[in-house]
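Q: I'm writing a short methods note and want an example of a predicted protein-small molecule complex. Could you take the sequence and the SMILES for pyridoxal-5'-phosphate and return the bound structure as C-alpha cells? Please keep the output block clean; save any remarks for afterwards.
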Amino acid sequence: MSFIDRHLGPRESDRDFMLKTVGFETLDELVDTVVPDSIRLEDDLDLPAPLSESEAQAKLAEYAAQNTVMNQMIGAGYYDSITPAVIRRNILENPGWYTSYTPYQPEISQGRLEALLNFQNVVMELTGLEIANASLLDESTAVAEAAVMMHRANKKVKNGFFAIDSRCLPQTLSVVRGRAEALGIDFVVTDFADGLPEGDLYGVVLSYPAHDGEIRDIKPLIDQAHERNALVTVAADLLALTLLKSPGELGADVAVGNTQRFGLPLWYGGPHAAYMAVHKGMERNLPGRLVGVSTDTAGKPAYRLALQTREQHIRREKATSNICTAQALLAIAAGAYAVYHGPEGLRAIANRLHDNAARVAAAGVEAGLKLVHQNFFDTVAFDTEGKADQLVAAALKAGINIRKINDDRISISVGESHGDDVLAALVEALGGELGETDEYGIAEEFLRTDEFMQHPVFHTYRSETAMMRYLRRLSDKDLALDRTMIPLGSCTMKLNAAAEMEPISWPEFATIHPLAPADQAKGWKALIDELSTWLVAITGYDAISLQPNSGASGEYAGLRAIRAYHKANGDDQRTVVLIPMSAHGTNAASAALAGLSVAGVATAEDGSIDVDDLKLKIEKYGDTVAGIMITYPSTHGVFEEQVVEVCQLVHDAGGQVYVDGANLNAQMGLAQPGKFGGDVSHLNLHKTFSIPHGGGGPGVGPVAVRQHLEKYLPGNGYEADAEGKLAKAPLPISQAMFGSAGVLPISWMYIAMTGAEGLKSSSEYAILNANYIAHELNELFPVLYTGDHGLVAHECILDLRQLTAESGVTAEDVCKRLIDFGFHAPTLAFPVPGTLMVEPTESENLEELDRFIEAMRTIHAEIKEVSAGTVALEESVLRNAPHTADVLTADTWNRPYTRAQAAYPVSALRLAKYFPSVGRIDGAGGDRHLVCECPPLEAFDLEAK
Ligand SMILES: *Cc1c(COP(=O)(O)O)cnc(C)c1O
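A: Understood, no commentary inside the block.
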C-alpha cells in the first residue's frame, strides 16, 4: 500500500458511499463543483513522483549524511545539551504529547497544562520573578517582545526610547532593530560603559551573561534605570541562573531568554522554547500564553489558560502580541528536564560546565592566550593576537566548532555532553594541556544563595521508572490525535505520520549548530532548498522564506515585505491594511506589529467579503491603502467565487494582496494563491504539511511571495555586527535563519511521500470529509455558510444559535458534552459566535466521522429535551458535562439523568471510554484570582465529595 493510502482516512468503498450520500458520482465531480473555475489549477503540480516510507527515509538519510556531526562549542544562544532518553522517547517521540492541540479545552488538557505549569514554575523560580508565560518563539523575538511590552507598560515615561545592550546576541539586535523600526520606536545600542544614555529612557535591556560569556554586575544599571522611571529587562541564560543571582533579586522587571539547553537538540537553530517572566502587576501586558490554576465544579484545583482576554483572538490589533502558536512541546520538554534533574541536578550540571570552562580558561592562558573576562559561566573568551582563524581551524581539525567573534577574539562554550576527551582535544588545539584548576571561580558577589524549585514535583521523579510513569499519567489525562479526531476548524489536525516524525531525531539533523560552517550543513541546505522549491511549486509563488517560526510570524514577515515594497516605490503613506471582520485575530495583531493600521471590511449575508463595502473602503482610504489580508478559502469554509475580483480591486487601488494560507489544505493541487491574485502568503506547515501541533507549537510559517517582493523576504540574522550596526536590509524576523529548521524534515517527508497526486488527493478528501459531515448534520445543526451549490470547502460552521435561543444550551455546553463521548471539541465561537467550526481533514476515516455524527445527533436529542422543558437546563446532562469518574461513582447521585446516560450515552463507549480528570472549569474565577504556580499538594483534597 502506498503512503497516501495510509495518509487518507476513507477506504475506496467508503469514499463511494460518502460521495453518494452527498449526491455525487465521483470525487472529481464533487471537487469541480466546489472549487470555482476562475481559480482552478489546470496542470498537475510540478513535484517528483511519490516515494514509499522507506524510500523517502533513505533519500533523506542521504541528505543527513551530508551534514557533519561535530562537538558544538560555538554558543551564541545555542548550546550542546543532552536530551534525556526518557524525555525524547516519552515526550518528543510520543504522539500522546506531540499530536495534542493548544489547551483551549482545559478539561481534556490537564496533563499538558500541568507540564506547562511546571515550565512556568521553573522560569519563575530561576528568574526570581512572580509570573512567567508558557513559552515564546525564540530568545531574539522574546527580547523584541519585551522591548515593546516595556513601552506599553511604562506609564511614567511615555514617548521615550529604549537602550539595548550591545552584548546581547547579534541576531537579537537585528530582530529587535526590525521590530522597533516597524513601530517607529527609538532605541540606542550601547555597552553601558558610560552608564545609561541621557534622555527619556523608558526601558533598558541587559544581557546576563553577555554573549561573549562575561558576567557583569548589572545591579547599578538596574538601580539607575529605576531612578529614572525606566523598566529593565534582563536577557538571561536560565542554566546560569542556577548559580547566579536572579534577575528578580537584582531588581529587574522582566527576564527573557531561551531554554534550549534544558535538554533540547540544537536542530540547526530551532524549535526551542523561549521564556518571559515579569513582576506581578505586568501580567496583563505579557505576550504569549499563560497557564493558571482555577477550580472545577467539584471545587478541585484545575489548570487552564489564563487571561486570554489579552490575546489576539479577542483584542485583535490591540492584543499584547501576535503570537498564537508558540513552543508548547519544547516548553513541556524543558520543564520535564527540570523535573527529572531537580534543582540539585541542574546545579550540578551548571557547576560541571563552569568547572570545565574554567579548565579551558586555565589551559588557554597557559598556552599564551589572553582571557578576556575573569567572571564567566560556561563561555570563555580569549584574545589571540590575530590568530582567531588559525585556532578555529585547529579546533575544527579536532572535530570541534568554536566561535570566532572577530579576527582577534574567539569564544568557547562548554556543553553538557563534552567529556574530558573532547576538552583535552580542544585545549590541545589551542596549544595547551587539560588540567584541573580552582583559579577561575565566579566572584562571590554574583552567586545566588536562595533556594529554588522546592515544590515536590521537582523532587519526586528521579528514577526513570517514576519519570516514565509521571509522563504517562499526565498524557493519560489528555485527548490528542492518538485517541480521537480533533475536528478543529482552521487548525487542520491531520495525520502526523510516524515515518515523517522519525528523522527529526537523527543526530545528523538534531546536533547541527545554526552557526556551524556552511560545509557542515550541506544536507540541511539541500533539504531546505528542495522543500522551498516544492512549496513554491505548490503555491504558485516565485520565492519563499522558511524563517518564520509560526503562522503569525509569517504574517508579520509578509506585511513587512509589503511595507518595504511601498516604501521603495516612494509610497510611505500606504499604511492601511483592509481586513475582513471574519479574519483570524493574528492578521490584525500582525498588522499592528508591522506598524500598519487596520480597517475592517464587512462580511456579506452569505459569508463572503462584502464587495460593496470593500469598494467604499478603498475609496475612503485612497492612496493610503497598503493592501488587503484575505483568508482563502475564507474562514467561513467556502471558496468565494469573487476572490479574483477582490484581488483586482485592491491591485487597481495600488494595494498588495496578502492571502492567509492557513487554509491551504483545501487547495493543494487544486488552486494556487500565487496565481489567482495573491502577492504574498504564509503557510502553516504545522497544519497543512503534517508538522504536529505539539499542544501549541512548534510551528513553521513560511512566507511565499511573487517576484517583486522577493528582495524583501526576511534576511540573514548574522549580517549585523556585534554592535548591531551595518545590518543589511532586510532584517531577520526570527533568531535562526531557518527558524524551526529541526521540524522541516516532517514536511519534506510528507511531500516526498505524497507527490502531486497525493497532495491533490489530500485536498479532495478533506473536501469530501467536510461535506459528508455537513450533509449529515445540516438538518439538526444548520451549516451556516455554503457556496451557491450548497457545498462547503474543507470545513463547515454548525450554527447553534437557534438551538441556544430555544433551550439555553450553548455551543460551549456542546463542546463539554462531546468530552463525555471522548471527542475533542470543534473550534468554538470562531469566526462566528454561537457556532462550532468542524474540520475533519483527509486523515479521518468513515468510522470516526460517523462516531462524531452519532455523538452530535445524540447531543441534539439531549438539547431538544431541554427545549421541550422535560429537563431543566441547569440540571441537564449538557450543562453538567463533562463527567468525571469521581462524580459518576460518588455514593450520592441526585441528578435527573442516570449515571449510564452521563458516561455511556452511546453504547460503543463501553468498549473504550475516556474520563476527564476534572469537571467543568471556572474560567472567570481563575482570572479574578490569578495563580500561575504549581499548587501545593494539600490543595488536592482527595476525599470524595
Ligand atoms: C492558525 C492560523 C493562523 C496563525 O497561525 P499560528 O501558527 O498559530 O501563528 C493565522 N491565520 C489562520 C487563518 C489560521 O488558521
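A: Remarks, as requested: The CA atoms of residues 804 and 810 lie 5 Å apart. The longest strand covers residues 201-208.
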